[in-house]
Amino acid sequence: MKINKSNAPHKIDVVLPTYNGSKTIYDTLNTIISQSYKDFSIIIFDDGSTDETLNIVSKFSDERIEIYSSNENLGYPGAIKKAYSLSNATLVFFMAQDDYLADSALEDAVSIFDLNPGVGALTRPYYAFDRSIKKPVRYKKTIESKHVPYETISTKSDFTKIQLVLNTLDQLSGLCVRRSAVTKDFGNDVFTSHVIPFLSVLEGHKIGFMNKYTVAVRVNSSQCISEKNIYDISPVYSWLRVMDIVFHKDEFRIIKKDISKKFVCSNWIGLFQIRNYSGSPFKYLFREYWLMLKIQPLNLINPLFIGTMALCILIPRKNLITLVNGVKNHISSKFVKRISFIIDGKDILLD
Question: Per the domain annotation, does 117 fall within a domain?
Answer without folding.
Answer: yes
